[in-house]
Amino acid sequence: MAVIDVWAQLPTARFWREKWLASLMRWTAQETPSTDTPVESLLAAMDEAGVSMSLISGWSSPRGDLISNDEVESAIDRTPSRVKGLIGADLSEPMEAVREIRRRAKTGKFVGVRIVPWLWDLPPNDRRYYPVYAACVDAGLPFCTQIGHTGPLKRSDTGRLIPYLEDVMIDFPELVVVGGHVGFPWLDEVLTMIRKFPNFHLDTSAYALHRLPEDFVKIMKGEGKGRVMFGTNFPMLTAKRCLEKLDLLGLDEAGKEAFLSGNAKRVFGV
């Protein structure tokens, strides 16, 4: 059965130097690297778990690009059949972000846009995002973001779904949204968003599957069956670690196929 990882990244040395990473590295019991993460390490982790494709993202921040779109594209060029990109967008220059999205979308190497709200300390309904949403709709690209609490040493409030992401989906009814990192502790809001917006999706990145909240598993097996996608948050977690207790979720074969690759194929067109 095919597996697609919809949330991965190849951190650079400057990414690893960010002080907010301290809590996350402590949480995952890892030493902080000091060099760029090579694409070969991702491919090895994919092969170990039978992952056919990973989506890697640029990371734009107020301090500049922590992972640039050029660096993402370079990794894609080395293994285009295994890796696709998610465009990072600079909210401090909204029109430049729009031009960047339009330009990268034409290459066929990028299948979405990702902005991590806590990096900017700006919730998704801030006016600076709105040109980005329009560019996503025009380019036919999903908008990917982080929902729920924040592991790094940054405020979690920007990951709350209601009212922040709800406002966005009301204002942009054509926008396809993928919320990463499950959405805990606001799982009641996750369920509300699934019921309200047919173009709202989620991924399980940052969680080994046996550690998913029980209420989230219920969503996966119920109303969210066609909405939830597999993700790792590599290199913080590997696919092998995430998938090792997949059978404990109790998904039927159709549910397992949708979760591991079917939903991602449909949403991202891969």
List keywords for this structure.
13% strand, 270 residues, TIM Barrel, 12 helices, alpha/beta, globular
Describe the structure.
- The chain is α/β, with parallel strands linked by helices.
- It has one domain: TIM Barrel (Alpha-Beta Barrel), CATH 3.20.20.140.
- Helices cover 40% and strands 13% of the residues.
- The chain is built from twelve helices and eight strands.
- Strands 1-2-3-4-5-6-7-8 form an eight-stranded parallel β-sheet, sandwiched between helices.
- α5 (94-105) runs parallel beside α7 (130-139).
- The longest helix is centred in the C-terminal third of the chain and has 16 residues, at 253-268.
- It is globular.
- The model has no long low-confidence stretch (mean pLDDT 96).
Summarize the structure.
The chain has 12 helices and 8 strands. With 270 residues, it is an alpha/beta fold.
Question: Could you give the topology of this structure?
Answer:
Elements: E1 4-8, H1 13-16, H2 22-27, H3 39-49, E2 53-57, H4 69-78, E3 83-88, H5 94-105, E4 110-114, H6 117-120, H7 130-139, E5 143-146, H8 161-171, E6 177-180, H9 187-196, E7 200-203, H10 214-221, E8 228-229, H11 239-243, H12 253-268
Parallel strand pairs: 1-2, 2-3, 3-4, 4-5, 5-6, 6-7, 7-8
